[in-house]
Design brief:
This protein is of the alpha/beta class. About 35% of the residues lie in helices and about 20% in strands. The chain has two domains: about 180 residues, Quinone Oxidoreductase, Chain A, domain 1; about 120 residues, 3-Layer(aba) Sandwich (Rossmann fold), CATH 3.40.50.720. Helix 5 runs parallel beside helix 6 and helix 9 packs across helix 10. One of its GO terms (cellular component) is mitochondrion. Pfam families: ADH_N (PF08240), ADH_zinc_N_2 (PF13602).
């Protein structure tokens, strides 16, 4: 099969690290497992792909895979089921699926990928594979953060925490436009009727403004106003929920200042993985979980703030929101060939992408005909 392998970790031109191969083996499926073999039709590039190419999570990858490289990157995929293990009961051959692959396995920058059943869901029926490939990580992250962790439902509907009460309109702040999560979060907040404000980079200001104008919120360009958090705090502006997609210590400190007492701080930062990268699997995991508990206790004591570091996985409710038109893909650029993956990495690295970058892997009809 065809695929793109990460030949070695390091900085520099992606073309020097990513190698296009036509002689890769289709990953063998163990019939006794819950694995699903998927023929990949489209994939998208996420910031973690770029980070891993440079060596992020290298220590844990070495332990988990018993090797560092070569390996195949890629997390978001859309495709068709071609084979299932005996314990994979949710899908059958021919099903169209989407999902995110595991950090500990080869990814979906190839014509076929082996995915554990829980990491997949039925793909939205209303989207092409190219459009759908822009959503798995970003859409699930936004939904799980705001709805599951933030407990935000439609205004006036039964409260997720107390069904006998109704959901009040909340003031929500989105920090950052990382990987399309910010746009999807604003789509959800607009649909549910909550007040939203956000900070993002200059190219995304018009897009963000269009999504929150009706709610009377504010969009801030952090390149023009680097001290935005201090200004908002000085004006006495406070929020019930804050979703931080930036995930740095500085961003966290800025965000917490803007929360009301009793508010919720939701972070997409992979804190445990960050510390594993820095300290190794055992010590990093220990430090990571301790850091989370410490932050939760300190913020609860200081400001009665609930802290949640959001983890993601597939969810059928997200698919329904996509099919209803609530969540819409934000695609900036489509590359027509897997061999262009290094160019896609370079585009993101230069900061030129204004939405998701998607790679076509196989045409569904052509691939199906070739399989027969």
């Amino acid at each position: 099969m065809r695929g793109v392998r990460l030949a070695s970790f390091g900085e520099g031109d992606p073309h020097s690290r990513l190698e296009v191969r036509d002689d890769l083996l289709v990953p063998p499926l163990n019939p006794s497992t819950n694995d699903v073999l998927v023929r990949v039709e489209a994939t998208s590039v996420n910031p973690i792909d770029l980070a891993m190419r440079k060596g992020y999570a290298r220590k844990i990858l070495f332990r988990a895979r018993a090797k560092e490289s070569p390996m195949t990157l890629g997390f978001d995929c859309v495709g068709t089921v071609v084979q299932t293990g005996k314990s994979a009961w949710s899908f059958k051959v021919g099903d169209r699926v989407w999902g995110s692959t595991s950090l500990f396995r080869d990814g979906c920058n190839a014509e076929y990928v082996l995915v554990e059943e829980p990491a997949l869901a039925q793909a939205p029926a209303n989207l092409t594979s190219v459009k759908a490939a822009a959503l798995p990580t970003a859409a699930v992250a936004a939904w799980k953060a705001l709805v599951e962790s933030g407990q935000l439902g439609p205004v006036g509907s039964p409260s997720p925490l107390n069904p006998s009460a109704t959901t009040d309109r909340q003031r929500v702040f989105i920090n950052g436009d990382s990987d399309g999560v910010g746009v999807i979060a604003l789509q959800l907040l607009k649909h549910y009727g909550h007040h939203a404000s956000a900070v993002c980079s200059a190219p995304n200001v018009p897009k963000f403004t269009q999504l929150i104008d009706a709610g009377g919120g504010e969009v801030i360009d952090h390149t023009r106003e680097p001290d935005w958090a201090a200004r908002l705090a000085g004006e006495g502006k406070e929020y019930d929920v804050l979703l931080d997609t930036v995930g740095t210590d500085e961003a966290e400190a800025q965000c917490v200042k803007l929360l009301k007492r009793g508010g919720k701080y939701l972070s997409l930062r992979p804190l445990v993985l960050d510390l594993i990268h820095e300290h190794g699997p055992f010590m990093g995991a220990m430090k990571g979980w301790w850091s989370i508990v410490k932050k939760q206790v300190e913020m609860k004591k200081e400001k009665d703030v609930l802290v949640n570091y959001v983890t993601c996985g597939p969810d059928g409710k997200v698919r329904r929101l996509v099919e209803e038109g609530v969540i819409r893909p934000d695609v900036d650029r489509v590359f027509d060939d897997l061999a262009q993956l290094p160019e896609a990495h370079a585009l993101l690295e230069r900061g030129e992408a204004r939405g998701k970058v998607v790679i076509k892997v196989q045409d569904p009809l052509t691939a199906a005909a070739a399989a027969h």
